[in-house]
Write a structure and sequence with these properties.
This protein has about 300 residues and is mainly α. The protein is built from 13 helices and two strands; from the N terminus they run H-H-H-H-H-H-H-H-H-H-E-E-H-H-H. A two-stranded antiparallel ribbon has the order 1-2.
Length: about 300
């Protein structure tokens, strides 16, 4: 048994200078990069509402949340760099479509209620997905996830509070909140990935301690968490098959349309082209800032050497 295998068997952390199989390294780069890309692209759907927030308080909260997402992307790109890949390489892979990001961010935010629904459902799903990553076998990823999960927990509570205010507001506000939940419910369930039988990376990631629970297990945890919260909100979930199973102690739910998930992942979602076009434009528009920073850094080095 190699030192890597022994560490995995004992539940120990793998650190950047430890020996590791190339497949383990490649799997981590793929997963961490996709996670980082998701945080960066995920700023767009809610960022579009910063100038249209209904109050100064809501604007300040949303600004802080979008800023947090940028920070999460930074932590994750830094974690990926410890595996020997350059951040510029990962970013180029995103912009050219060679690496993916979470399918959930390819849906439009049509009303202010979408912002609260993203906080409640999307960030809630992210918490269920990501808390187990705090015990991931790769040290830098696990440590980064601790802070990310704490901040995502705040985002989820903020979204819940926003939806609660809308649900208890005017009939029009309640209807707007319900419409947003109707549109985001099924895409939120898709966030956990394909069913276990169709998940190509799960078995190996689980064996290596990167993944702790299966897609279907996490999806079920999410449903069990959200159903009672929806009752508190006074909003219904758009699933006629939703019912509590006394024997299992969990909620049964209807079939997820994984065909839609595959289409969105393939680049055919409502906002795929728009999201990447926006990101590419931001990259081009910021080129002069990056060049100025490089020139200034070089000047500082020369002054220090003089």
């Amino acid at each position: 048994m190699t030192s890597f295998e022994s560490a995995i068997a004992e539940g120990a952390r793998i650190e950047p200078r430890d020996a590791m199989p190339e497949d383990y390294r490649a799997t981590l780069i793929r997963q961490i990069a996709q996670h980082a890309h998701s945080e960066i692209i995920g700023m767009q759907p809610e960022g579009a509402w910063i100038t249209r927030a209904p109050s100064l308080r809501r604007k300040a909260i949303l600004l802080a949340k979008v800023q947090d997402e940028a920070g999460h992307g930074l932590y994750l790109y830094a974690a990926a760099e410890t595996l020997g890949v350059a951040r510029s390489e990962l970013y180029d892979a995103l912009l050219t479509g060679r690496q993916k990001y979470s399918s959930i961010f390819n849906y439009p935010t049509l009303t202010w209620a979408d912002v609260g629904t993203i906080g409640w459902l999307v960030d809630g799903a992210a918490i269920v997905n990501q808390v187990p990553l705090c015990r991931c076998s790769y040290g830098p990823y696990a440590r980064g996830m601790v802070r990310i999960c704490k901040e995502e927990s705040f985002h989820q509570r903020q979204g819940f509070e926003s939806l609660l205010a809308l649900s208890n507001g005017t009939p029009g506000q309640h209807a707007m909140a319900q419409d947003a939940v109707n549109r985001w419910w099924w895409p939120s369930l898709m966030m956990f990935g394909p069913p276990d039988t169709d998940s190509p990376h799960s078995a190996r990631s689980t064996a290596w301690g990167i993944k702790r629970f299966s897609n279907d297990t996490l999806r079920q945890r999410f449903v069990d968490m959200v159903v009672p919260q929806a009752e508190v909100l006074g909003l219904s979930l758009p699933d006629p098959d939703l019912r509590f199973d006394e024997g299992r102690g969990s909620w049964d739910f209807g079939p997820v349309d994984f065909t839609e998930l595959r289409e969105v992942v393939a680049g055919n979602g409502p906002c795929n082209a728009e999201r990447l076009a926006h990101r590419r434009a931001a990259e081009d528009d910021g080129a002069w800032v990056r060049e100025a920073a490089r020139v200034h850094a070089a000047k500082q080095v020369r002054r220090g050497a003089a």
